[in-house]
């Protein structure tokens, strides 16, 4: 058996970043991975501007009642401030040349003659946002390999970018084998079960930004499996299957991958889970998840998801940071050889956040994954008493 | 000024759940909000089945060498186990009547005569997954009001559901006002700035599952603003604008909403932020965010996002649980009247997770939101010393 960390490292070290880069309009770039660092061509804000609605003045004049010499809404270009005057100004508007402070309107009193008097001391520089304070010309505002979130797109807009260079979507072809499988909505005669793997895997891949080529259930024959693999490998960057990677299993994925390409079959010290296949078919990567839905789900989250992220160009730095939280449960019969990933939920009890585990951690219980919001990682042989601090990873 | 909590409570208490429910195919239901609880019509697994590849036996017979009387791949219906025999069985296959245990193949030795001998003691019930162990007939597997995640869809598939009843997408119309705004890609003459609000707000709404009606920049005239509001309200459940809700601002959103519907204009004890408008235009809700991008962003995350979630049918229970982490910074001049929401990042230093704050917390610095992965919530007047435990909310 190889360890979870060895397997992650092996996969990550072989994640070839998708080569194609495309320009997409800013509003279509959410969730995509930036393919070139973004350097600002301009200052944000472009000019010194007012942080308040109020009056732009020279601080040295501000003890006097001042006539209002101009009005500067946001979006207009001001005249230089006339000597011994104030300019009515609004939030975001450009500070007029010769002014050096803004007085907020709550500290200004309009006089009967139209002049303005200030009710608080005025300091040079007050309420002025400086040119380039947010972003300076030449500053790197977004890094290559970062997955673009909403505020990132706001920043790209602020420097005038109508589109961004992102890696093209990773194409992932999936199919499912097993003569026991039927699709939801079909009748399930005795002995058959519904194909649940398709319905968590396809959304999980889409959530990552993959373009999913969903080939559905493939008949459990060697020729059909080989044909599906060839078809999938010709159309996708990564081919994924669920099932058929355990010793002695009743289907043809192993033999078909070996016939069409190359295969590594691993036993990994992970529970739930254990078998995982990796390989190549033509230029496509092959990943064979275990067919048991809980094993497949945990294996995907722990081992495969970050491989796909790296494969699509995202910067992946080892494990995500776990949270450390106290257990509100015990776990007295740990697996002695495999790391265990318990399905847990973070709950607040008496004002303290704690971990509850799903009662039945059996590998046949997919409801444990739906119920959970995190996985606790236990070392081989690690038992748990209530109060133990445990590392939990979000799902 | 009213408090952040008062404002959240006010908005949440007025969030009318969208009335229309639609059936969507399972693979299109990711991220949608379930509109009816899902009750299982069947047991999962439907039959007692094998947790291993191996041999199904009667435990009482297992001390003997047993002939192999049948072979049971997954997906087939077994015969009753012949007396004093074993059945070759595979993971997931139905346990034959009369068998009461499965011996894993690693503990079985095939004999020259085709019989099988077991190398470890066998206990009745071992390696059998019980009918209904994951899901029992009549069990509620998914709750009304939950946002559907990948594993939820796997569970729905496991009970044979080809589609789910979800609330229809919330329609949110957005527009942006301010004569200083130009769109990215256009020239920005002196005095103009790029419309960044559109580019974080539209993706944030889509991320929530909203159908966004994006009306872009509307000319800063009362008639144009009124026309845009009428158009938006006729097509959407919620109308959102950025800007024009501060006292003394230079545009017409306030007057236009008052002319077309009703408006509450609030000063909220929040920094960044302060002004927020809420109201109704016809049957549509109106939300007016502050025009400053950082204020708008924080106001959206803290006050508006959960309103929209509740409005689209999702169960929202107060604030999300914050994490408590030590500050690796100081904050010595807190606002005395407003709660502050500092943009922070969780970093690991010497093996301990800590909070860094973005150096410039000014409300003109949108890069602080892109850099951050959380908001620290400070009470009015609360200063921070390194090491203080602070509540942080993910963005």
Automatic annotation (TrEMBL), chains A, B:
Enzyme Commission designation: 2.10.1.1
Catalyses which reaction(s): adenylyl-molybdopterin + molybdate = Mo-molybdopterin + AMP + H(+)
InterPro entries, per database record: MoaB/Mog-like_dom_sf (IPR036425), MoaB/Mog_dom (IPR001453), MoeA-like (IPR038987), MoeA_C_domain_IV (IPR005111), MoeA_C_domain_IV_sf (IPR036688), MoeA_linker/N (IPR005110), MoeA_linker/N_sf (IPR036135)
Keyword tags: Magnesium, Metal-binding, Molybdenum, Molybdenum cofactor biosynthesis, Transferase
SMART domains in UniProt: MoCF_biosynth (SM00852)
Residue ranges of domain MoaB/Mog in the record: 173-310
Gene3D superfamilies: MoaB/Mog-like domain, MoeA, C-terminal, domain IV, Molybdopterin biosynthesis moea protein, domain 2, Molybdopterin biosynthesis moea protein, domain 3
Family listed: Belongs to the MoeA family.
Free-text function comment from the UniProt entry: Catalyzes the insertion of molybdate into adenylated molybdopterin with the concomitant release of AMP.
Name this protein carries in UniProt: Molybdopterin molybdenumtransferase
Species this chain originates from: Vogesella alkaliphila
């Amino acid at each position: 058996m190889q360890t979870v960390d060895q397997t992650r490292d092996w996969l990550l070290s072989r994640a070839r970043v998708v080569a194609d880069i495309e320009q997409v309009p800013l509003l279509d770039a959410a969730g995509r991975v930036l393919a070139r660092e973004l350097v600002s061509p301009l200052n944000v804000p472009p000019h010194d501007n007012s942080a308040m609605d109020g009056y732009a003045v020279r601080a040295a004049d501000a003890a006097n009642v001042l006539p209002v010499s101009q009005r500067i809404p946001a979006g207009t270009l001001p005249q230089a401030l006339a000597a011994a005057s104030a300019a009515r100004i609004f939030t975001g508007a450009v500070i007029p040349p010769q002014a050096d402070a803004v007085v907020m309107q709550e500290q200004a009193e309009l006089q009967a003659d139209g002049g303005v008097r200030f009710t608080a001391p005025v300091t040079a520089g007050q309420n002025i946002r400086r040119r380039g304070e947010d972003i300076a010309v030449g500053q790197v505002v977004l890094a290559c390999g970062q997955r673009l979130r909403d505020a990132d797109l706001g920043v790209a807009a602020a420097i005038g970018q109508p589109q961004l260079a992102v890696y093209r979507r990773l194409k992932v072809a999936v199919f499912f084998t097993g003569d026991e499988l039927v699709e939801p909505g079909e009748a399930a005669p005795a002995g058959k079960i519904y194909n649940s793997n398709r319905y968590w895997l396809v959304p999980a891949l889409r959530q990552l930004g993959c373009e999913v080529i969903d080939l559905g259930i493939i008949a459990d024959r060697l020729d059909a499996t080989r044909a599906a693999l060839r078809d999938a490998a010709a159309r996708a960057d990564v081919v994924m299957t669920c099932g058929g990677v355990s010793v002695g299993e009743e289907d043809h994925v192993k033999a078909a991958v070996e016939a069409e390409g190359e295969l590594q079959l691993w036993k990994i010290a992970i529970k739930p889970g254990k078998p995982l296949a990796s390989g190549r078919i033509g230029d496509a990567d092959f990943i064979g998840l275990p067919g048991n839905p809980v094993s497949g789900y945990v294996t995907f989250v722990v081992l495969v998801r970050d491989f796909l992220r790296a494969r699509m160009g995202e910067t992946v730095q080892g494990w995500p940071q776990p949270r450390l939280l106290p257990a509100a449960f015990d776990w007295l019969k740990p697996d002695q050889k495999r790391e265990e990933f318990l399905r847990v939920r973070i709950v607040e009890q008496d004002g303290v956040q704690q971990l509850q585990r799903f009662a039945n951690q059996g590998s046949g219980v997919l409801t444990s994954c739906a119920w959970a919001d995190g996985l606790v990682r236990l070392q081989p042989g690690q038992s748990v008493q209530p109060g133990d601090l445990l590392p939990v990873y979000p799902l």
